[in-house]
Amino acid sequence: MKLIRPLFVATHLWFALIAFVLLFVAAYAFPILFPLIQIAFVIFLVLIGLDYWLLFRRKNRTNGSAFFARREIPDRLSNGDENPLTIYLENQYSFQVDVEIIDEIPYQFQRRDVLFKARLNPRETQAIRYELRPTRRGEYSFGSVNVFVLTPLGLLKRRYQFGQGKMVAVYPSFLQMRQYELLAATNRLNEVGIKRIRRIGHSMEFEQVRPYSTGDDVRTVNWKATARRTDSQGASLMINAYQDERSQPVYCLIDKGRVMQSPFDGLTLLDYAINASLVLSNIALLKQDRAGILTFSDHVGQLLPADRRTGHMLKILELLYRQKTRFLETDYESLYTSVRSHIRQRSLLLLFTNFETVSAMHRQLPYLRRLAKDHLLLIIFFENTELRSLLDQPATDTEQIYLKTIGEKFAYEKNQIVKELTQYGIQTILTAPQNLTANTVNKYLELKARGMI
């Protein structure tokens, strides 16, 4: 059975059998062809036996196999990103082989087209690279790598199976986080839509008193220190030196209620918010601020206090990875109570949620105003991109005019929400899901440059 189970019939063999059936049928009309067809069929059976012998005769001394394959996969995958995978092939036969590779990827991808073909010379190695884009966090189970080997005769296939399965966790978009971190280190954040923010004035976190240098702001002259130095060491202006304000608490408040379950490009709004929170937390830590996370829905979920000690980014990543969807109505009263109890210092609160109508925002407005009274509140909600594409298309009949009218009403309400929140001193971002991360980081850098945090 060990020599039969891995054996499969190639397409060429089926075509040859069909051809022989037709030839034998034709031999009834032309009996003179029958002996020739019989000889050809015997030769055909010999070729099948030879093909079988070539496939199964040789075994490698190291692993007992004449062919070797290995899948190389990261220890964890990045949600919403294209993750690279590599399959390494090694032909240990003494002749050229054609191979078909079927990789058993997790069912979450819902793909049935992961089939690759290659041709390897004797003792040759090849690498096949492809990408997978997961759209859900959690554990993904990879199966075996199935390799079907054909000899130059191409009549039979021998199946090899490598790697009996591997469990891989899909985390929030750490690839996007690394991209922003690298661009920030090389001062190239503008490549991903991050604007250069002009710093308005200077921060008021005192660093030291030092001698005046050309180009220093004369408004920072410390006249008392100048007078003391003039008396003791001669005339010399002294100024107050300031540094960027650091260790400001920055919290990402992530709504896990039903309003965040709308899909866009395979990901839910919740996953977009989680990916943006991971990037923003990393940027905040690079800016020497403290980053924290709070999740909520019908009740408050997990709270990670703002911190910037070594290993804090890993805690944020693990917390965001474990978040699960809840399809219940969001309770903002519980959110306000939890923030008031656990976040005592004035902080920047980035609230990721979604409001579709003005009335929905009005129901939560009292709690939002209370949050904005004690903290700097930034509400981030989403533009309906499908609705926007509908509005951009010209109407050609009565039905489309009706649909565009309804769409204009919803789009107007989104803009009305922004205006009403701004009237109460609440910062807002209305963004398309694909622009969420860049717009959020831009707003954070703007608020920091304006000295509001």
TrEMBL record:
Residues 208-378 form the DUF58 domain. Keywords: Membrane, Transmembrane, Transmembrane helix. InterPro entries: DUF58 (IPR002881), vWFA_dom_sf (IPR036465). SUPFAM superfamilies: vWA-like (SSF53300). The keyword Lipid biosynthesis does not apply. It comes from the Bacteria. The keyword Transmembrane applies. The chain crosses the membrane at residues 7-30, 36-55. This is DUF58 domain-containing protein.
